[in-house]
Amino acid sequence: MSDWVILKLGGSILTDKSADCAINRESLDTIAAAVAGAGTDGIIIVHGAGSCGHPEAKRYHLDVGAESGKTDGIYVTHRAVSGLNDAVVTALREKGVAAIGVHPLHVGVADNGRLVAFESRHLEQMLRLGMVPVIHGDVVMDLSRGACIVSGDQLVRYVAAALKIRRVGLATDVPGVLDEGRVVPVITRRMLESLHIGDSKHTDVTGGMRGKIDELLGLADAGIGSDIFHVSRVADFLAGAAHGGTRVRGEEE
Ligand code: IP8
């Protein structure tokens, strides 16, 4: 296992999900300051799309796939989420973090909605140089469907497993996974059936909180636990302190 860390920033904390690609610059600046304050050694940032990608993906039915001659949605969706990626990288760099954007469309391939290849050797090399790669949920070419949407959570799972990263944190707009309004401190696969997990009100083509937990349980099956917490606790997570959120883990941890 490596000492590197993955920090996932949910789309709902970076954008106003009720408006078309409205970037929340204030939230972005606060997060960037927390990352800069923590020292940036060995961090990969993954972010979601929020209102910069989900509405476009839905409009062009990319959750179903893409057909020959009908590919505008691939361009439009990738452009929307790449614009958000630029804003995240810029905010981090303004705080002195050596951030650099990496686009999954360019380095990943999927089949039936799941990544089957994602080049990650360059991420390792960036980390060794003290850089902070910033990757994001994206539209990716799909061997069966033409194209598909790969969520930031799927990327977290893939990259954490590929690089053997054991500290994985997901910052969201809620204090953790909520069951009837209360934070569930620990989730394992066995506990899942007894929980009542709500869904997002806004357009989300990748499954909302339920999709997130499915990815993280898959990661836990591979021996890598993860933490879901409120965005105001990013500094606590990076410092290895208690964050008041949810731990997703295997039965044995
Ligand atoms: O917000 C979705 O990523 P997510 C990516 O992490 C696009 O689910 C382009 C809709």
Question: Which terms summarize this structure?
Answer:
8-stranded mixed beta sheet; 253 residues; two-stranded antiparallel ribbon; Carbamate kinase
Can you describe what's shown?
- The chain has 253 residues and is α/β, with parallel strands linked by helices.
- The protein has one domain: 3-Layer(aba) Sandwich (Carbamate kinase), CATH 3.40.1160.10.
- It is 36% helix and 26% strand.
- It has 9 helices and 16 strands.
- It has helices at residues 11-14, 25-38, 54-59, 72-94, 104-107, 121-128, 152-162, 208-221, 234-239, and strands at residues 2-9, 15-16, 22-23, 43-47, 99-101, 108-111, 114-118, 132-136, 138-142, 146-150, 165-172, 178-179, 182-183, 186-187, 226-230, 246-248.
- It has an 8-stranded mixed beta sheet with strand order 5-8-4-1-11-15-16-14, sandwiched between helices. Strands 2-3 form a two-stranded antiparallel sheet. Strands 6-7 form a two-stranded antiparallel sheet.
- A hairpin with a 2-residue loop joins β12 (178-179) and β13.
- It is globular, with a radius of gyration of 17 Å.
- The mean pLDDT is 93.
- Isopentenyl phosphate (IP8) binds next to α3, α4, β9 and α7.
